[in-house]
Prior knowledge:
Helix content: 25-40%
Structural class: alpha/beta
Largest sheet: 6 strands, mixed
Distance between the termini: 43 Å
Number of helices: 8
Shape: globular
Bound molecules: adenosine-5'-diphosphate, magnesium ion
Order of helices and strands: HEEEHEEHEHHHEHEHEE
Amino acid sequence: MYLRSLHFSRRREGPRGAAALVGAIVSVAPLDPDPAASEVGSQPAAGEACVAGAEALISVRGLTKVFLHGGRELQVLRGIDLDVGAGELLSIVGSSGAGKSTFLHILGTLDRASAGVVSFGGRRLNELGAGQLAAVRNREIGFVFQFHHLLPEFTALENVMLPALIGRLARAEALQRAEELLVEVGLAERLSHRPGELSGGEQQRVALARALVWRPKLLLADEPTGNLDSATGHSMHELFFALNERFGTTMLTVTHNPELALRMPRRLRMSDGRLTEDTGPPRPGAV
Ligand SMILES: Nc1ncnc2c1ncn2[C@@H]1O[C@H](COP(=O)(O)OP(=O)(O)O)[C@@H](O)[C@H]1O
Ligand SMILES: [Mg+2]
């Protein structure tokens, strides 16, 4: 593989640029090889006590986000409080422009809050420097977007291995994890296919496998089935549940798909810059 050819995936644009997203996805920041630190279920190191609630993986207090645009302030998030426990499955719904992606980007360290506190695994994100944020983003958080952002010249197997290799995981271990994940997402027969030789649903499965190669504590998915037909979207949903069970990954999924939203054990709605909780029970068979 030609890692040197990946220069284009470094962060060059603002936090919302496509290159930034690809950069986040393929974990381009140089990192120390310390795979044990990213194992699912690993606890905060001694002295790294959780800021709010011993069980919370994510703790958000008074989060606001204001964009400056054309000399005017646009208040998008207006005071969000949220605790998410390790292993939880959540959906977020809300109208277009409500601030769902903005919220996910802040949780995923791709953007910073204007005010408030976001804690992840006991660390306050606003107190971390760029290098520490990159380490959290690359090792502990996986991303899946509406568009898969796979690298077209690499095979499915190489696309999944890349973040691990760039983060300097041993090649044999990266290969084993990538193969295992691709089998897990039902692509055992597609390891050597390039993205152009895969269907849309298969491409998203590869993107999901890639997001999990570091065994992140948190998976952030922003409309992951937005480009898929309903049957293909449905099988992606099944995968989320299976992978949550298999790896214990906490999953936060923004979706327009009411079926996926309703099936999640915990459901949130974003409106007027605030999050509210749907307290009813999940509806497993809902369409
Ligand atoms: N970088 C930015 N600069 C200015 N405004 C932005 C920026 N990013 C998002 N916005 C605005 O913030 C609002 C919320 O955007 P977004 O989080 O993408 O919404 P959603 O994902 O819920 O559709 C929108 O009105 C959008 O135009
Ligand atoms: Mg969005």
